[in-house]
Amino acid sequence: MAKGRCFQLDAKKLLFVLSLAMVCLSLYTFLSDPGHVAYWNAQPSVHPLSVAQLYRKKNASDDMPANASRTDSSGTPDAMSTNATDWTATKRLPQALIIGVKKGGTRALLEFLRLHPDVRAAGSEPHFFDRHYDRGLDWYRSLMPKALDGQIVMEKTPRYFVSADSPARVHSMSHEVKLIVVVRDPITRAISDYAQIVSKTPGVASFESLSFRNGSAGVEVNSQWSPLWIGLYAQHLERWLAYFPSAQLYFVHGERLVTDPAGEMAHVQDFLGLERIVTDKHFYFNQTKGFPCLKKPEGSSQPHCLGRTKGRAHPQIQEEAMRKLSEFYRPHNVRFYDMVGKDFGWQ
């Protein structure tokens, strides 16, 4: 009788072991199926890798920055994005702004930053804080591209730096926003600004006659003329420092952005807290335009230079006018160097 009971217990144990083995085998078969793995990886409950990590994994053997955050014309992430990251893409207010300066190299900087997979940038200049502030933050947010968690949303409007109302308005949006200013020699910048004016308004007066109140290379510099006024960097910076600590502003050396774009981009990426992904392998110098171009820009296998308006030829300026403008800007430049703790070496 006892022997029969032992046999029944052994049979139950055997049945339990066999059942457990079948469950384990089924689970192993399920998890080994690539289709099942792909399905579960695509679910929103799975926390995705950072976009920069995805970039490295996808491009380990390819120099082209296949931007994981690329979007189609509707602003929706395209097939280059993983399914896992599509679920979290939303529109939000920018965490970084390129606020100036006009003709300093802001478009180039934005194009270079677009190569980074953790950067999402608005295409056109919103001019929200200087022209369209009454439309409200919801309208402003609607202009931003969709972005994933961990990506930085940004826009550029060079007019912000010289706008009297912009510092307070930006601060009202965010106390922590990071601000980038591309600066170059104020005289060269003014001449570039004038060249753009001439291209749009043929027949405009000479640079010299507009720069001095008493005509060509006159005694008094016309500092209220916009191309010269913009170059009073210290004056404009004072307004921003009334609302933001200097640690939240980074000043890009406009001349070095041309001669050493990878070096300047390394500093910008550090300032934004980004991994240094945009490097010298992304640039080549175009001798014709006198400007760096992108070897393989986002969404293209062909090299790309900025538009024909970039690298526009400058008019010849009288030496006397250049000398007087240099004397005029010297104390303003020195004051600016002291404020930012950096000597840009402008003569």
Automatic annotation (TrEMBL):
Location in or out of the cell: Endomembrane system; Golgi apparatus membrane
Major location (coarse): membrane
SUPFAM superfamilies: P-loop containing nucleoside triphosphate hydrolases
Single GO MF descriptor: [heparan sulfate]-glucosamine 3-sulfotransferase activity
Keyword Transmembrane recorded: yes
Gene Ontology cellular-component terms listed: Golgi membrane
Amino acids binding 3'-phosphoadenylyl sulfate: 103-107, 184, 192, 310-314
Cystine pairs: 293-305
Keywords: Disulfide bond, Glycoprotein, Golgi apparatus, Membrane, Signal-anchor, Transferase, Transmembrane, Transmembrane helix
Biased composition regions of type Polar residues, renumbered to the chain: 68-85
Topology class, membrane: Single-pass type II membrane protein
Region (Disordered): 60-85
List of catalytic residues: 103
Domain named Sulfotransferase: residues: 94-331
Enzyme class: transferase
The enzyme's E.C. designation: 2.8.2.-
Ligase keyword on record: no
Family: Belongs to the sulfotransferase 1 family.
PANTHER family documented for this protein: HEPARAN SULFATE SULFOTRANSFERASE, SULFOTRANSFERASE
Protein's UniProt name: Sulfotransferase
Species of the source: Clupea harengus
